[in-house]
Recover the amino acids of this structure.
């Protein structure tokens, strides 16, 4: 806390006071209220990216990374002490930023409404450290969803931005035409120094309080004082509730910067992932150590969301269609809950108790998730959705199998979207374990798997299709993981 | 060549330049209507009270509790309306309804000092409802005989005879879905009252003149007391042709009652639940082919899902009927149309305006019949193309039919279709779990408003003393690049550099009585009007320059900022000429006007030549379908499209690409779902958010996307030889759906027939794959039958009302009155 100090944010290089802000005021409305109307509201739920802005965040080492975030989801108060750059701050019509120039001259804007958001998402990728080293052909495939262009630009950076006019081709071409930042580019220079400190904050509004404690002890103290407080980290779920469903709370605790919740440690028996590391940070820090999660990340919402969303948040909301829980179930992850009375461990399989309900008590928060080691040798994540980028799954299936000498020694399967909570496919696991990894076993187990859970009919998919997807998932896994000599053509 | 289409040397039109606002777009400096909110002092915010019923009487409306909420200033109800309580032009859209006609309809609006206050106020308003039974689906409406508006019939030849004599007769049904516009900028209006009661409304509208009319009639004012301005729109796609009027009227009403500016901006959920969408259709059809696969007859009945009010459903239906032929010669045709009245949002204009639905029917017929005829679908399509000299079923000669062939042939060549077809066969033979397919489909789309009176436009061109030029015209900018084209037209017509010309926002007090920027006609109509205004100024300047240079006026050439004669030293800078003309008291501005000649249309008979010309195109789409899931990828798309001599190639290619991807969205992943259950939320839109209604993202873009504009495609009689481009490319996306159908079929033995639901979501494709593998009939599809009784399209009652849009009736009544008066017989 900074008693007596005004809350403020550095926006496009100028310090701006966080005046007239309530806990429910989002960063987009606050910025627009300043007259910075470049960022737009297109959906108010982090799906369209028209509100994207750049925020200075840690690059995981000592420097700063320009991180694109959906301003519509972010509480304005959470920006206290931080640095923000909007499309207006990148360049002017007379002096365009390279990203702006490429988009403008290639026809990357038609109506222009989504454009400032695209500009910010593109700028974040433009400044991404190590981009140049990832030069690729730019063509994606089912095996390699990452489509890095010849300049290393990963199109996934734009997966959270929707354009209704262009059909995207000129936007892609603009992205792939970008060079490297020049030596005197101030935003490139900014990367080399430390990010803004995570300041403790307390905002007393007319309708409630937003508090960001300095450490875990303070957070637990606040939680004990205010049992009805809402815990917010990336606010990618809470922001939707606030914007679309009028959720308001007299007390909001921002836990996104608690140092105790931002560690990632690997020991011989497990990897412990801090609850409020963003998925982007987790992906970077894990660096491929957990291959199953590497399959999940590109399919988890969008880059804009992953830059805010946290592993703890994905478990904290208890949603049955979150994409991480099925994978974490297959990995037999353990949830580390911390409260005033200390810490306890709960197997993820025992964590969910009902629709958006869990064993977490009101005075507890998720500190970390532990993934036990060693990992299974065959893992896969199948997400069924209408759209490849940024869609909610109708069914998600995560596999972790140990197949040794053609025998399934151990099978762990996590399912999402087929019940009120994420569940393990226990009957299917039993139908696989101790049997040969053969087409016959897969056929029999698929029939079992088709009757796992209680899928619903809704706007995303029919129950029949969800069942059918359960039925074909193992067959697809088998087709993709057939031992040599069994004859099926590999995709 | 006509004067209108002739290009001078070195024209500014035809240059590939970026959107005129591109620099403002990318820097966030471009202003949209809601961006004015923070720039307007003392502005109030409007929030609706949305009914939690699909069909209900409002039995009590108690607004007082809202006024107790801090910050609430006023609640607007029907009692406040000084004029007509209707948000449309047909008298069937009460702005403040006493009977709720769709789930979430706004029954009143709350004004607050902040949006939060208005929102909390809306929750405090007490409303009692008496629920009534509701009709949700088109099929329910058909069963219950729930229709609205006219029931047009388009007929040529003797369908029954032709079907009786056909070698093959197939019949079937198709349910095709609607589409949400999902313009990124939701509906928005900001209204305030100037001095002396003048109402000024800034609105995100494609049709400022009609917004003005509606605001005036709601307020009980004359049109001259209301001015509407549209800065620009964050997308329109037809969704801002009729829909903005009521919101502008509510904002204006609030402004007149409070004396303060009022902002009404729908958030995404409100926009999705309140505003109209593309019409879904149900179609029944019978089609007859000869032994070679030539279409002999089509008998079809198209029922559109109009929603709760008529809106633009009648002209949309008319265009659907006029496009059921697409590019194909069908000698005997009988197509009946009717509009279902359902308790849903009132469906409205959407890019293509019924054309896509009409075309989808015939392409579905061909795609489903081809394997039954044993003919490759591409061959079957090409075999049935129009030849020059043939007429459409409504009697318009098909001019330039050879351009459809040219586009088709060019796509086959540049798309390397023959070689790729072989590669696809190889892929399919060697990959057990995926199938690829390539489909090619044509487009022929009529350009002009069906209703002839709308085909007029105005412009106002000012040349200032310093030689700079300011252009106003009646069209609106929604991203389609109209203003860019108009700048190019003005610069070309005046012979000045592009930089000399500026475009001002569209306002009803600059150019009156404008038509909607719609029907792809924006550049054709307004471009001709801008050109006309420029030419008036140029004609006057010729006289001045002639005297100065000693060159006869008609030998002077205007270009590049100079006026030149043919001789040495006979050059005068534009700015000097303009300065001199001012001193000579020559009028330096002009109002331009244009009306499209040669159009005629009888909507009761569904006959005439409603279109100035046809736009042509062809697309080849290749897809890969995953047999485990039904998911697919769009591997490659090749398009050749006819835009005449392009006014602005970068803009036109953008329109083709964007239209195609939007069309692909409609036919694949965009999936509007209403609650059709009998539960308490029956009739609610289940996909009322961006997280549940998915549009194409970057991942749906074709991985290889080649778009070419047809060359040597001059269109005589249209501004600088160009053609319209906004809508036609959308329908090229039917190639994607047909490719998915063929890829799903390829999971079965050769000749396999599948029935693909629309939209072809991964789930729909999966069921088609299952069907190809011997599984059941896919949900939401009806099998095609050959011979026998089959599906018999329902025929209307003998006394069914023909299509007579009110706007046409008014125009015709006026004509009759005029004729009567001029002949001295009138009263």
């Amino acid at each position: 806390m900074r008693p007596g100090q005004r809350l403020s944010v550095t926006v496009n290089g100028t310090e701006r006071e966080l005046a007239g802000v309530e806990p429910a005021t989002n960063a987009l409305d606050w910025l627009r209220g300043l007259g910075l109307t470049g960022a737009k509201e297109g959906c108010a739920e982090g799906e369209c990216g028209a509100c994207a802005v750049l925020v200075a965040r840690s690059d995981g080492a000592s420097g700063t990374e320009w991180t694109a975030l959906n301003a519509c989801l972010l509480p304005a108060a959470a920006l206290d002490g931080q640095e923000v750059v909007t499309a207006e701050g990148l360049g002017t019509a007379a002096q365009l930023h390279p990203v702006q120039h490429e988009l403008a001259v290639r026809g990357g804007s038609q109506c222009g409404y989504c454009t400032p958001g695209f500009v910010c998402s593109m700028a974040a990728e433009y400044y991404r450290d190590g981009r140049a080293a990832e030069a690729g052909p730019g063509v994606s495939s089912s095996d390699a969803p990452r489509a890095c262009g010849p300049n290393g630009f990963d199109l996934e950076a734009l997966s959270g931005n929707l354009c209704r006019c262009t059909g995207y081709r000129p936007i892609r071409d603009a992205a792939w035409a970008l060079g490297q930042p020049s030596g005197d580019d101030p935003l490139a220079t900014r990367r080399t120094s430390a990010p803004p400190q995570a300041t403790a904050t307390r905002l007393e509004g007319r309708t409630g309080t937003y508090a960001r404690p300095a450490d875990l002890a303070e957070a637990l103290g606040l939680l004990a004082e205010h049992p009805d407080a809402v815990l917010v980290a990336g606010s990618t779920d809470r922001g939707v509730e606030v914007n679309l469903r009028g959720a308001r709370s007299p007390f909001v605790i921002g836990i996104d910067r608690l140092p105790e919740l931002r560690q990632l440690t690997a020991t011989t028996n497990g990897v412990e992932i801090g609850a409020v590391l963003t998925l982007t940070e987790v992906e970077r820090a894990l660096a491929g150590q957990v291959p199953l999660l590497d399959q999940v990340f590109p399919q988890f919402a969008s880059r804009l969301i992953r830059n805010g969303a946290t592993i703890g948040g994905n478990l904290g909301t208890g949603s049955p269609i979150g994409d991480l829980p099925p994978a974490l179930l297959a990995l037999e992850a353990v949830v580390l809950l911390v409260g005033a009375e200390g810490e306890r461990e709960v197997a993820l399989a025992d964590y969910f108790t009902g629709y958006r309900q869990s064993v977490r008590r009101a005075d507890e928060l998720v500190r970390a998730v532990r993934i036990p080691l060693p990992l299974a040798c065959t893992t896969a994540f199948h997400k069924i959705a209408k759209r490849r980028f940024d869609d909610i799954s109708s069914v998600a299936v995560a596999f972790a199998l140990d197949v040794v000498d053609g025998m399934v020694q151990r099978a762990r399967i996590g399912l999402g979207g087929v019940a009120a909570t994420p569940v393990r496919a226990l009957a299917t696991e039993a139908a696989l374990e101790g049997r040969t990894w053969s087409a016959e076993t897969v056929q029999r187990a698929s029939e079992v798997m088709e009757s796992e859970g209680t899928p619903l009919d809704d706007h995303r998919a029919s129950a029949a299709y969800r069942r059918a997807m359960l039925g074909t998932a193992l067959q697809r896994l088998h087709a993709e993981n057939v031992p040599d000599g069994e004859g099926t053509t590999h995709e | 060549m006509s004067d209108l289409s002739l290009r001078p040397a070195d024209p500014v039109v035809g240059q590939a330049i970026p959107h005129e606002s591109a620099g403002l777009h990318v820097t966030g400096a471009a202003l949209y209507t809601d961006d004015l909110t923070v720039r307007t002092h003392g502005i109030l915010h409007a929030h609706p009270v949305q009914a939690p019923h699909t069909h209900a009487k409002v039995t009590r409306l108690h607004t007082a509790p809202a006024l107790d909420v801090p910050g609430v200033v006023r609640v607007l109800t029907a009692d406040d309306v000084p004029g007509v309580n209707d948000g449309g032009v047909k008298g069937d859209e009460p702005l403040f309804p006493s009977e709720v006609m769709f789930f979430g309809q706004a029954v009143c609006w709350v004004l607050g000092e902040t949006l939060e206050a208005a929102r909390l106020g809306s929750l405090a308003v007490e409303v009692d409802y008496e629920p009534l039974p509701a009709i949700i689906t088109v099929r329910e409406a058909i069963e219950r005989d729930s229709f609205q508006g006219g029931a047009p019939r388009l007929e040529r030849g003797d369908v029954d005879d032709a079907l009786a004599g056909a070698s093959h007769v197939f019949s079937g049904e198709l349910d095709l879905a609607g589409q949400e516009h999902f313009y990124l900028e939701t509906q928005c209006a900001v209204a305030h009252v100037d001095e002396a009661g003048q109402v000024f409304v800034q609105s995100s509208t494609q049709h400022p003149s009609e917004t003005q009319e509606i605001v005036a009639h709601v307020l009980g004012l004359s049109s001259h007391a209301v001015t509407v301005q549209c800065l620009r729109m964050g997308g329109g796609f037809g969704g801002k042709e009729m829909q903005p009027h009521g919101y502008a009227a509510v904002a204006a009403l609030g402004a007149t009652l409070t004396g303060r500016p009022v902002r009404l901006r729908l958030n995404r959920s409100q926009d999705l639940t309140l505003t109209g969408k593309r019409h879904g259709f149900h179609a029944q059809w019978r089609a007859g082919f000869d032994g070679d696969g030539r279409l002999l007859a089509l008998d079809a009945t198209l029922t559109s899902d109009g929603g709760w009010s008529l809106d633009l459903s009648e002209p949309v239906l008319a265009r659907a009927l006029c496009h059921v032929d697409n590019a194909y010669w069908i000698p005997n045709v009988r197509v009946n149309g009717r509009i279902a009245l359902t308790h849903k949002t009132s469906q409205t204009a959407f890019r293509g305006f019924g054309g896509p639905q009409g075309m989808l029917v015939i392409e579905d017929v061909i795609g489903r019949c081809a394997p039954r005829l044993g003919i490759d679908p591409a061959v079957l399509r090409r075999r049935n193309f129009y030849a020059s000299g043939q007429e459409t079923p409504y009697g318009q000669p098909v001019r330039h039919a050879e351009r459809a062939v040219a586009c088709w042939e060019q796509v086959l060549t540049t798309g390397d279709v023959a070689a790729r077809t072989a590669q696809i066969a190889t892929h399919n033979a060697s990959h057990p779990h995926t199938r690829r397919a390539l489909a090619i489909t044509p487009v022929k789309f009529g350009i002009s408003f069906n209703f002839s009176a709308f085909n007029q436009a105005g412009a106002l061109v000012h040349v200032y003393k310093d030689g700079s030029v300011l252009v106003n015209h009646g069209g609106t900018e929604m991203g389609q690049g109209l203003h860019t084209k108009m700048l190019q037209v003005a610069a070309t017509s005046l012979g000045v550099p592009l930089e000399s010309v500026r475009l001002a926002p569209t306002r009803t007090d600059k150019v009156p009585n404008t038509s909607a920027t719609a029907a792809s006609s924006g550049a054709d109509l307004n471009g001709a009007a801008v050109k006309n205004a420029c030419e008036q100024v140029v004609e006057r300047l010729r006289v001045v320059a002639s005297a100065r240079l000693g060159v006869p006026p008609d030998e002077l050439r205007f270009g590049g900022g100079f006026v030149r004669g043919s001789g040495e030293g006979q050059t005068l800078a534009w700015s000097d000429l303009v300065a001199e003309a001012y001193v000579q008291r020559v009028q330096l501005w002009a109002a331009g006007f244009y009306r499209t000649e040669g159009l005629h249309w009888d909507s009761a008979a569904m006959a005439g030549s409603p279109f100035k010309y046809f736009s042509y195109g062809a697309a080849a789409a290749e897809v890969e379908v995953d047999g485990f899931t039904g998911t697919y990828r769009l591997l490659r798309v090749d398009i050749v499209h006819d835009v005449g001599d392009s006014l602005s190639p970068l803009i036109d290619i953008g329109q083709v690409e964007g239209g195609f991807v939007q069309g692909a969205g409609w036919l694949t992943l965009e999936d509007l779902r209403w609650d059709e259950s009998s539960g308490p939320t029956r009739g609610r839109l289940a996909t009322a958010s961006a997280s549940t209604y998915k549009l194409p993202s970057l991942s749906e873009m074709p991985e290889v996307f080649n778009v070419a504009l047809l060359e040597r495609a001059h269109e005589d009689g249209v501004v600088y030889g160009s053609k319209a481009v906004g809508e036609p490319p959308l329908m090229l996306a039917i190639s994607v759906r047909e490719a998915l159908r063929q890829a799903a079929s390829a999971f079965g033995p050769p000749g396999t027939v599948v029935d693909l639901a629309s939209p072809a979501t991964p789930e729909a494709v999966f069921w088609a794959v299952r069907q190809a593998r011997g599984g059941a009939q896919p949900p939401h599809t009806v099998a095609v039958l050959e011979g026998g009784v089959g599906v018999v399209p329902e025929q209307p009652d003998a006394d069914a009302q023909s299509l007579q849009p009110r706007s046409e009736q008014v125009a015709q009544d006026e004509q009759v009155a005029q004729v009567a008066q001029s002949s001295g017989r009138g009263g």
Notes: The two ends of chain A are 56 Å apart (CA to CA). The domain at 259-374 of chain A is CATH 3.30.465.10 (Uridine Diphospho-n-acetylenolpyruvylglucosamine Reductase; domain 3). Chain A is about 25% helix and 20% strand.
